[in-house]
Design brief:
Aspartate Aminotransferase, domain 2; 12 helices; 4-stranded mixed β-sheet; alpha/beta; 7-stranded mixed β-sheet; 35% helix
């Protein structure tokens, strides 16, 4: 008899060991991981990250934010580069999005936040209220007020919702949870310009798209924009719980002493992991190779599945790919797992692929072969 709430639908399997891009169950069976723990272990189970965690654990793994923390400064510098941002560290994507919502409201003195239908920003009350999916909110009563929802890739629908109290527009550049739907570049260019012209902050949720997932450190780099606020989590710690909110430095006064905080946010253990992740990702040629491998994977899938009547679309950006299908998603996930491949779902009809960025082309071919087989 379980002692756990049944809010997860768990497969009858437990992974007890991992190495590189493989997971191993209790029986020792190996599984090629095309899920990265829902876009978290973006580097696979990388020895550099493991070494950083072990080294830090030998020294000290937690101090609260009452004291200096050089690792936070180190990670912030690597995340920001030459951009004019400041960083705040939290424990998850939802917490990073909560921080973004609070910063936008306090910096502007306004309350309205426009997000998008079918978006996903988290399950805490503010992040859930920003999420444009009713199924996430059912049964939890009233959400946080002053949120409204535009149509993705439709600028007019945004303009229709703007009022004198609009503080920010918040969106994902690829809507992940609802079906891996990339934003149209022309829409993002026009939306960014509209926000700037009207004094509306532009928040980009990079919790799933950031940290190299799309072939660049941030997905917004594909679109030639620089958001006012950016949120990160998932791949930032490669499996260690950490989130970050980056905001333009000019908003620094809005997060003055006592305005926001986190007991665990940015502790030394998670910062050591994040710093090592960034060292790998920012190494010369790493991200260009990720972009190339993402294109290779999408091309291989198009070639293998283009004539399959069960597949209605293949879309994505970098190594974030959705296969839209008429087949039962649960059956497909089980069949893939039986053949040693771990995949995810998104929305009601999409198989979602978030493979490790360290995957070789040979392993990509191996995964595509299994996917071809299960769709056949």
């Amino acid at each position: 008899m379980t002692k756990l709430f049944q809010n997860y639908k768990r497969a009858a399997i437990e992974f007890v060991k991992a190495k590189d891009n493989y997971l191993f169950d209790q029986e020792g069976k190996a599984y090629l991981d095309f899920s990265s723990g829902i876009g978290v272990t973006n580097l696979g189970f990388h020895p550099t990250v493991q070494a950083a965690l072990l080294k830090q654990a030998q020294d000290i793994w937690h101090t609260p934010n009452l004291y200096e923390n050089y690792l936070q400064e180190e990670v912030a510098s690597k995340l920001i580069g030459d951009r004019d941002y400041l960083a705040f560290f939290a424990n998850s994507g939802a917490e990073a999005n909560e921080a973004a919502i609070k910063l936008a409201r306090k910096a502007t003195g306004k309350q309205g936040i426009i997000s998008f239908v079918q978006s996903f920003h988290g399950r805490t009350y503010g992040a859930m209220s920003a999420t444009g999916q009713d199924k996430i909110k059912t049964g939890f009563g009233d959400g946080v007020p002053h949120f409204s929802y535009a149509i993705y890739n439709d600028l007019d629908s945004v303009k229709d919702l703007v009022t004198s109290d609009t503080a920010a527009v918040m969106l994902e550049l690829v809507q992940g949870e609802s079906g891996v739907r990339p934003a149209d570049p022309a829409f993002i260019t026009a939306l960014s310009a509209f926000c700037q012209e009207n004094g509306i902050l532009f928040i980009v949720d990079e919790v799933q798209t950031g940290m190299g997932r799309t072939g660049k450190l941030y997905a917004f780099e594909h679109y030639g924009i620089e958001p006012d606020i950016v949120t990160l989590a998932k791949g930032l710690g490669n499996g260690v719980p950490v989130g970050a909110m980056l905001g333009k430095a000019k908003f620094g006064g809005a997060f003055s002493y006592g305005s926001h905080g986190s007991t665990f946010g940015g502790n030394k253990l998670v910062m050591a992991a994040a710093s090592s992740v960034l060292d790998v990702m920012l190494a010369e040629d790493f991200l260009p190779q990720v972009l190339e491998k993402g294109q290779y994977l999408q091309t291989a899938l198009q070639k293998a599945l283009a004539e399959n009547a069960k597949v209605t679309d293949i879309r994505g950006l970098g190594c974030m790919i959705g296969i839209e299908t008429t087949e039962n998603l649960t059956d497909l996930v089980i069949q893939a797992r039986e053949q040693g491949l771990i995949v995810l779902t998104a929305g009601s009809n999409v198989i979602r692929l978030l493979p490790p960025l360290t995957l070789t082309k040979e392993k990509i071919d191996e995964g595509v072969a299994i996917l071809t087989d299960i769709f056949d």
